[in-house]
Request: fold
Amino acid sequence: MSDERPPEAVSTQPLLRVRHLRTHIGTPRGTVRAVDGVSLEVERDQALGVVGESGSGKSVMARALMGLLPPRSASSGEVFFQGRDLLSLSRKEQSEVWGKQIAMVFQDPGRPLNPVVRVERQLTEGMRRQLGVGRSEARGRAVGLLREVGVPDPERRLRNYPHELSGGMRQRVVIAIALACEPDLLIADEPTTALDVTVQRQILDLLRRVQRERSMSLILISHDLAVVAGRTDRVAVMYAGRLAETGSTREVFDAPRHRYTRALLAATPALDHKRHTPLRLIPGSLPDPTELPEGCRFAARCAHAAEECLDLDPYLAPVGADHHVACANPAAAPTAPTTLASGGDPLGR
Amino acid sequence: MAGSGTAHLRGDKALLSVEDLVVDYPGKAGTVQAVSKVSFDVLPGETLGIVGESGCGKTTTGRAVLRLDRVTAGRIRFAGEWIEQADERRMRALRRQMQMIFQDPVASLNPRRPVKDIVAEGLAIAGSPADERAAASATVMSQVGLDGERFADMLPRQLSGGQAQRVAIARALAVGPRLLICDEPVSALDVSVQAQILNLIEDLKAQYDLTVVFIAHDLGVVRTISDNVMVMYLGKVCEFGDSAEVYANPAHPYTRALLDSVPLTDPDKGFAGPALEGDVPSPLSPPHGCRFRTRCPLAQDRCATEEPQMNEVRPGQHAACHFPLPPTT
Ligand SMILES: Nc1ncnc2c1ncn2[C@@H]1O[C@H](COP(=O)(O)OP(=O)(O)OP(=O)(O)O)[C@@H](O)[C@H]1O
Ligand SMILES: Nc1ncnc2c1ncn2[C@@H]1O[C@H](COP(=O)(O)OP(=O)(O)OP(=O)(O)O)[C@@H](O)[C@H]1O
Ligand code: SF4
Ligand code: SF4
Ligand SMILES: [Mg+2]
Ligand SMILES: [Mg+2]
Reply:
C-alpha cells in the first residue's frame, strides 16, 4: 500500500475505479471491440464477480487491468487504482503496481507454472525481485504461503516440479505465487474451470478465505454464475464487451432485472431441475465483435426485445440502491425469485 | 473391496448390462486398474448418468462397453447377447447399434473432411451406397440443427464448439443406433450452448427411441437428463439409483460430498455442505478396503479391512458403504 497519502484520503475512494474502459484489437477481419466501454468499481476488502458467456470480454478486460494487452490493440478510458490512473503512469511506476499491488491468476491452464522449474523458485522469484527479499527469508515466506493455501508438507513440496503435484495442488501453488508480493487486489480469471467439482470447491473456499484474512480485494471471473454467487459481495454481468447488470450479489441473484442475466440463470441446470423437462434456451450466439449491432447487443437473442431496443443502445441506469441495469425493457423485480432458475417441484419429480 | 457387487442389476429387461467389469492399463510404473469390478445396467429407453471425479474411470467404462479397449475381466450383455468375447467382426456390426460420442468432439472429427462426409462415415463403413449416404447425412444434419448447404461443406476447424458437438451427434445417429454413449458432451460448452445440446439429446432420444449413457462431471446437468445415476470413485461404483432419490437423499458419503461441492446460485448459501478434504489417491496403489476411506468423514476400522458391497439401501437405491447415510428428507 502507498503510504504517502493520509489514510482518510485513500479510504474514501474505491481501491479500483474503472471508467469507460475500451480495448479494441486489430485483426485482418476488422477491429474486435473486445472491451467496449466498461465502468466498474472494486472496494477495499471486497470481492467482485464478473460473469458472462465465452467471448464476452472478461479475460481481455482482466488483462487490460493488468497492463497486458494483445498485440495490435489499443486501450482507452481510465483505470484508477488507489487514486492513480494506471494508464497514464510511467513504465517504472506501472511495474510497481502490476504484479505487486495487483496480481493475477490466469485462465490458461498450461501457462502459470513453468514445468522445468521447482516450486520453490517459482514462488520466491517474484518476492526477491519485487520486494528485494533475501534468499533464506524468501524460502521461509514460501513455506508460509504454501501452508496458507493449504498445501500439506510445504518444505517437501518446495522441491517438487509442477508435474509431481495434483491439479488442485498446482492451482494452490499458482494462487500462492500470486499472493507472494502481498497484492491489494487479486484478479482470478476462471481459477477453477478445468478442475473437478470437489477441487473447485476447495479452491473457491481458499480464495474467499485469503481474501478475507488478508483484507484483500478480489475480482473473481467465471462463466458459471453459481461460482460467483456465494463468494462475492458484488457482481458484474458482461455481454459483448459491455456490462449488462451490476450490483450487490444478493440483489442481482435474488432479483435479476436484465433480460440477459435472467436468461443465463434459466439456462443453468440447477440441482433440483425437473428431469426430462427442456431447459430454457438462449437462442443464437454472441454478436460478431467486429460488427456489433447499433442498439442493444443482446437484442437478436432477447425474447423481450422492443422496437426501440434495435436502435437505442441502453446504458447502465440505477434500479436499486446498489443495482444498475443496461436494458430498455427490464424485467420486473420478481416476487418469488427462487423459482427462477428451476421451477416446479423442488425435488424435481 | 469398495464398491463391488451386482445386487443392483435388474436382470434380463436391461438393454445393456455390465457385470464386474475390470479394465487394467499396464504401464511402466505398475498396472492401473482403471475400472475395478464395476456393474450397472440400463433399461430400454432409460438414460443412465455416470458422474465422478477426473480419472475415476468413466471414459474407460464407456469404451469398454464398445470393446474399444481390452476388457480384463467381467461380462457385458447387449440386447440379450454376451459380447465381452465377441470377435471383431461381430463387434463391427454391433457398433452400428451402440454408438459413442467422444469426450473431445473437435479432436474426434477428421480435420480434412467436410462435415457431410464425417456424418456419413459410419454408413460408408457399413457399405451403404453413396446416394443413400448423402440423403441420410442430410436428414440427420437437419435433425441436429445444422440445416442446409452452409454446414455440409465446412471443415471441423470452421465450427464452433457447439456445432462440432452437433456434428459428432449427427455422425453417431446416422447409423441408427439403439444405445448412445455420450462422454462429457457439454463440458466444454457455454451454458447457453449446453442447454441447446441437452435439449437436443432429449428430443432425439424420443424421436429415435434411444437408450442413453451420459457421462459428465456436472451434477446439475446429469440431474436434468438422467433416470438413474451411477457415482464412481477411483474405478469403483459408490452408488447407483434413481437420480431424484440419489440427489435428494444420497446414501454414500462420497455422493453427499459431491453434491455439497456444487456451488449454488443462492447468494446466501454458497455450498450445501462442508468441503471434501484431500486429493484422490494414486490409482497405482488405491487404498485397501473401501477406496474412499482416506477422505471419508465417516470412515471406521472396518472400512480399511473389508470392501463394502453394493446393497439396496432404500427401494431403487443401492450404495457400497458399510455405514450408509440415512435419508434427510
Ligand atoms: N488476441 C486477440 N486477437 C483477436 N481477438 C481477440 C484476442 N483475444 C480475444 N479476442 C476476442 O475478444 C473477445 C473477448 O475475448 P475474451 O477472451 O476476453 O472472452 P472471455 O469472456 O474471457 O471468454 P472465455 O469465457 O471463453 O474465457 C472474443 O471475441 C475474442 O475472440
Ligand atoms: N490409455 C491409457 N493408458 C494408461 N492409463 C490410462 C489410459 N486411459 C486412462 N488411463 C487411466 O485410467 C484411469 C481412468 O481414466 P478415465 O479416462 O477412464 O477417467 P475419467 O473418469 O473418464 O476421467 P475424466 O473425467 O478426466 O475424463 C485414470 O487413472 C487414467 O489415468
Ligand atoms: S434492451 Fe431490449 S433487447 Fe436488450 S436486453 Fe433489454 S429488452 Fe432485451
Ligand atoms: S463409511 Fe466406510 S465404507 Fe462407507 S464410504 Fe466411508 S470409508 Fe467407505
Ligand atoms: Mg476468458
Ligand atoms: Mg473421461
Summary: Chain A touches chain B through 52 residues (CB under 8 Å).
